[in-house]
TrEMBL record:
InterPro entries: DNA_bind_recomb_sf, DNA_bind_recombinase_dom, Resolv_N, Resolvase-like_N_sf, SSR_resolvase
GO MF term set: DNA binding; DNA strand exchange activity
Keyword field: DNA recombination, DNA-binding
The keyword Transmembrane helix is annotated on this UniProt entry: no
Keyword flag DNA-binding: yes
Protein name in UniProt: Recombinase family protein
Pfam family, one: Resolvase
SMART domains: Resolvase (SM00857)
Amino acid sequence: MRRRKNHRTAPERKQQYTLEAEWSAADLTLLEELRRAEDLLPEDAPRALLSVRLSILTDDTTSPVRQELDLRLLARERGYRVVGIASDLNVSATKVPPWKRKQLGDWLNNRAPEFDVLLFWKLDRFVRRISDLSTMIDWCLKYQKNLVSKHDSIDLTTTIGKIIITLIGGMAEIEAANTSTRVASLWNYAKTQTDWLVGKPAYGYETFEDENGKVRLRIDRTAYRILHWCRRAALRGVSARRMTTILRRSRLVGDGLTASTLLRRLRNPALMGYRVEEDRSSGARRSKLVLGPDGKPVRVAEPVFTEDEFHELQAALDRRSKDQPGRTPGGSTRFLGVLVCVDCGTNLTVHKTTTKGKPYAYLRCAECPGGGRGAPNPEAVYQRLTDDVLTVLGDEPVQTREYVKGAEAKKQLKRLESSISYYMRELEPGGRFQKTRFTREQAETTLDKLISDLDQIDPALTEDRWVKVDNGKTFRQRWEEGGVQAMVEDLLRVGIKCEVIRTKIPRMRAPKIHMKLSIPKDVRERLLVKEDDFADRL
């Protein structure tokens, strides 16, 4: 029997394209030739951004190189200067819209003034949902950008072009929907089969091919030892957190294992050898048994635990968790990501317990032993943080980023330059303004005024750009209107942290709390509110 060979991971495949080995000598020669051609373009040539995308990159893939070279050839044909390449590989156009892709999204959200036209190889390389296409058309019209495809008749400067791009986008969405239907059908069929057709097996199992070439599941021996050790520990009353610590020290698991992950593994009914699926009816992450046509669970492998062993394990886990309060909607910790432990650097989170019927809440961290010295009364910590933030940043003005087009200033600049050239030419000997002293003096006066007007125009105003606009409010007013959630969002966006120092007090259980606010040096630049053109899009 032989194991199934795993494909390379996505980061490994992506890294391959960045190496020069993906470019042949002929490709590099053509690339250099195209760059030399760009150097001959006029200064005001339209600026092009190339969008390169691929869902799956394999060893035999040359598509990213081909896409870039084809788009550079198209740019040369149309007289565009290439100013950037947004390369998003191993990215699904169905799942990830253009504005959420790592590279293209940065250009669309932050670097719009730097290009005039967006080039892509084919429409399905760009989008696969008509709603995403409609969003991009609206965005391009708002910022006066054009969309151009190498293999589709797309041009937003014409009405016909807009109609064509909508029709093609509809066809791409239909194709994507058909693919989604086929995949869903495969999953539904696979759930009823004893063979392992698709998907990642539950912890405790691994896939292999039998002598007939069919993929099946078998028990992972290392995971088997770990799970049975955890079962025996749970029966003795050992907590999941303690088990996690011991397992990490033993090096049988990775350092990223958490108590929550371990509990999900121990509570998975797949450990009885049955097929399971996600249980979407509960708020917690759980799995439930898949029943076959006969109403019985579908067995896909030998059990790690017998049914009696599994149910004994669940009862032991329930005894440890029965007094735990339910989750608070929206999360218990208000300033999650802002409040951090000064000792271990991890986030402080609210933990709730009930002792003798009385609920208690306190802040703990993830890496310090026992969660560090528990800080009681989280509300008092929140209030001190709020007061400190308002003292430091409350009076800062709220500024928004707005997009300003330079087209009007550019037209005015060209008009003045044309008029100055005309008057200078006609004031030369033999020109029409040299016929009389009156016409010459009038022309010289007009020329002086035109030159003065030209000097008043800042060349930067002729380019598309972002500008800061004061909306008349302070951040104190913004946070009073938006509440704590608005403050948290701004603090996370800016990168502000609050280090909490918990100092032991003799003969006192509760520690003394010190708080240190860490604010980036460029906080005023980071506080700039940027409008999200895609905030309301799914």
